[in-house]
Design a protein that fits this description.
CATH architecture of chain B: Alpha-Beta Complex
CATH topology of chain B: Sufe protein. Chain: A
Radius of gyration of chain A: 22 Å
Radius of gyration of chain B: 15 Å
Shape of chain A: globular
Strand order of the largest sheet of chain B: 1-2-3
CATH class of chain B: Alpha Beta
CATH superfamily of the largest domain in chain A: Type I PLP-dependent aspartate aminotransferase-like (Major domain)
Structural class of chain B: alpha+beta
Largest interface: A-B, 31 and 36 residues
Strand order of the largest sheet of chain A: 2-8-7-6-5-3-4
Order of helices and strands of chain B: HEEEHHHH
Distance between the termini of chain B: 24 Å
Helix content of chain A: 40-55%
Strand content of chain B: 15-25%
Largest sheet of chain A: 7 strands, mixed
Number of strands of chain A: 12
Largest sheet of chain B: 3 strands, antiparallel
Shape of chain B: globular
Helix content of chain B: 25-40%
Number of domains of chain B: 1
Oligomer: heterodimer
Number of helices of chain B: 5
Number of domains of chain A: 2
Structural class of chain A: alpha/beta
Chain lengths: 396, 150
């Protein structure tokens, strides 16, 4: 079905996903024959407009929102940036609230705008998740103030996959009159997620994590949520995001979400079983390994520590055998700090350097898991044999 | 991001192991930072006759460890201790800017092993400065991709 290299095994679905051929089929006509600008008045434009609005309705129904509450953006990062900055600044202006709260293991698309706000007139409180990989509502309550404008906690973490108690967190924020945003990029389509059920004021989504194309995001803004647009210009997207809409991307997003929701229950079961095989195979088959985050997790997500191995080395060795995974080691990121997510849940730095994130998805098979479990142990053994401290630190 | 030669040395590192009756031992780095190197040397007539290494670290850390054992073998102690991180990187066909600090681990490890040999034999250590233990050493200095401070 997919264009896959011989024996190549993709296990990094949290990073991105291949576009499902059913999604490509749905979007292609809007790149070619129905190429019109949805803001043009003639037939071509009206066709594009109808496709855009029908995509909006479909996505809105999928997440429990009203169509006019959805803003098409360029990516998940844009949605996060727009929510953090756009809501906080407007809330500060209207209500004199100048305090924001985010969790310590947010994606950088949330953390960096939060830090930018902290340098531009806002107070920032960062709430740590606990060792289980969950932000506990009581910990959030303790961080809230009477002038808290916005709280942002992700729906599920991108590195360890832990699902956050969003409804309780949002309720805690609302009790103090603060607004609540969630980065739901990882959670969308993988677990039930309904904006009105969880009671969030804003949420970020991205198409390429759910077998849609890169470059298509959505920002949910509950009706009445104060917001100042980041992009100004032609006033598209209810004046909340100027710029000609990516019609093909929106159509693709809607199709991708429709497929995710139709297959959600079966996929959750299938991917959980495959993930359990990965985790069991590693923990039982390789000494000195452990799993990060004990809280409930997205199906198909596992973050494993191989003590005494460095993540980038494992990643490159796995790649040489055709297996793609990711790591929270410092060396893979270009910085010298290991994953801020792993540090936030209390994982010691020397262990975080040895982390592997394995995320499974629609095209993962039993054979892929077999291959991974066959290839990994000798790689770990070899790297440990080259580690001058391994016996001293972890030997029997 | 890595040159072919880095990948070659990473996939098939040269001189991995520990010389049991080593004349000098150098161990540098810290597992908290994610990289540790141990280098053992044999010395004859003030020349390095054998070198082996063990390294915990990323692709660049392993490749720089491997290449420095090749570069240093046969050299006098003084010449070997003066191999620079730039020479190590050049020999590998270059390193990504964020990985330049990895070559410091290799050059420092070798310096420590050579000084260990000299000290054990009651001689003055060469005392070539260790870059990684310099409090002013900034591994970030050569990276320009920190988008945090926009």
């Amino acid at each position: 079905m997919m264009h896959r290299m011989d024996r190549s095994v993709y296990m990094d679905y949290a990073a991105t996903t291949p576009v499902d051929p059913r999604v490509t089929d749905a979007m292609l006509p809007y790149l070619t024959e129905h190429f019109g600008n949805p803001n043009s008045l003639y037939t071509l434009g009206r066709d594009a407009y109808r496709a855009l609005e029908s995509a909006r309705e479909s996505i809105a129904a999928g997440v429990g929102a009203q169509p006019q509450e959805l803003v098409f953006t360029g990516c998940g990062t844009e949605s996060d940036n727009s929510a953090l900055i756009g809501i906080s600044q407007m809330a500060a202006e209207r209500k004199s609230r100048r305090h924001i709260v985010v969790s310590a293991f947010e994606h950088h698309a949330v953390l960096h705008p939060a830090e930018w706000l902290a340098k531009n007139g806002f107070d920032l409180t960062i709430v740590s998740p606990r060792a289980d990989g969950v932000v506990h509502p009581g910990d959030l309550r303790a961080a809230l103030r009477d002038d808290t404008a916005l709280v942002s906690v992700m729906a599920a973490n991108n590195e360890i996959g832990t699902i956050q108690p969003l409804a309780e967190l949002a309720e805690a924020a609302h009790e103090r009159g603060a607004l609540f945003h969630t980065d739901a990029v990882q959670a969308l389509g993988k677990i039930p997620f309904d904006v009105s059920e969880v009671g969030v004021d804003a949420a970020s989504f991205s198409a390429h994590k759910i077998y849609g194309p890169k470059g298509a995001g959505v920002l949910y803004l509950k009706k009445g949520t104060p917001f100042r647009p980041l992009l100004m210009g032609g006033g598209q997207e209810f004046k909340k995001r100027s710029g000609t809409q990516n019609v093909a991307g929106a159509v693709a997003f809607a199709k991708a979400l429709e497929l995710m929701l139709a297959e959600q229950a079966d996929e959750a079961e299938r991917l959980s079983a495959l993930r359990d095989r990965v985790v069991g195979g590693v923990l039982d088959g390789i000494a000195n390994t452990r799993l990060n985050g004990t809280g409930p997790k997205l199906p198909g997500y596992a973050n494993l520590i191989m003590l005494g191995c460095e993540g980038e080395s494992m990643l490159l060795q796995l790649d040489s055998k055709g297996i793609a995974v990711s790591t929270g080691s410092a060396c893979s990121s270009g910085s010298l700090e290991p994953s801020h997510v792993l540090l936030a849940i209390g994982c010691p730095a020397e262990e975080a350097h040895g982390s592997l994130r394995v995320t499974l998805g629609r095209f993962t098979t039993d054979e892929d898991v077999d291959r991974f479990l066959e290839v990994l142990p000798p790689i770990v053994e070899r790297l440990r044999s080259m580690n001058p401290l391994y016996e001293r630190m972890y030997g029997a | 991001m890595y040159s072919e030669k880095v990948m070659e040395h990473f996939n098939n590192p040269h001189n991995v192991g520990v010389i049991e009756d080593a004349d000098g031992v150098g161990e540098v780095g810290n597992p908290v930072c994610g990289d540790v190197m141990k280098i053992t040397i044999k010395v004859d007539d003030d020349r390095l006759t054998d070198i082996k290494f063990q390294t915990l670290g990323c692709g660049a850390a392993i490749a720089t460890s491997s290449i420095i054992t090749e570069m240093a073998r046969g050299k006098t102690l003084e010449d070997a201790a003066r191999i620079t991180k730039q020479e190590v990187a050049d020999e590998l066909g270059g390193l990504p800017p964020a990985k330049m600090h990895c070559s410091v681990l290799a050059t420092d490890g070798l310096k420590v092993a050579i000084d260990d040999y000299l000290t054990q034999h009651g001689r003055e250590p060469l005392g070539e400065p260790l870059i990684s233990s310099d409090p002013n050493f900034d591994p970030h200095a050569e990276t320009h991709d920190d988008a945090c401070d926009l």
